[in-house]
Amino acid sequence: MKTILARHKWLVDCTVSEMIDTETNKRYYVAKICGYGGWYLANDNPQNICDEVKSIRTKILDGDEKIFLNPKYSRNNVYKQLW
User: Fold this and answer.
1) Which end of the chain, N or C, is less surrounded by CB atoms within 10 Å?
2) Are 26 and 8 within 8 A, CB to CB?
3) What is the pTM of this model?
4) b/e per residue, 53-72, with b = 16+ CB within 10 A?
5) 22: helix, coil or strand?
6) pLDDT in tens for each of the 83 residues of the chain?
């Protein structure tokens, strides 16, 4: 079962939900950046998450559409990293 621990608004136009899988005690983050949801981020350090969200936001605002095709941020890839 997954539980939301917190919602962070570290940056403008970005909301990061900190979640935990209660069966494995693994934390992960799901971000909504500039209105685009579903950015799965696996990292234990909140500062790294903030930097990664900032990088994604910059690419979106610069018009780099390749960021939407990056498999690094897919749900399946994050689950592979965590479990």
Assistant:
1) N
2) no
3) 0.82
4) beebbebbeeeeeebeeeee
5) coil
6) 889 999 999 899 999 999 988 888 888 899 999 999 889 888 768 888 999 999 999 999 999 988 988 888 877 666 555 54
Q: Which helix (H) or strand (E) holds 80?
A: helix 75-82
The pair of three-digit structure tokens given for residue 13, joined into one six-digit string: 């136009």
Query: What is the residue type of 38?
Result: G
Structural domain boundaries of the chain?
A: 2-82
Give the 3-state DSSP-derived string for the chain, with helices as H, strands as E and coil as C: CEEEEEEECCCCCEEEEEEEECCCCEEEEEEEECCEEEEEECCCCHHHHHHHHHHHHHHHHCCCHHHHHCHHHCHHHHHHHHC
pLDDT of residue 75: 73
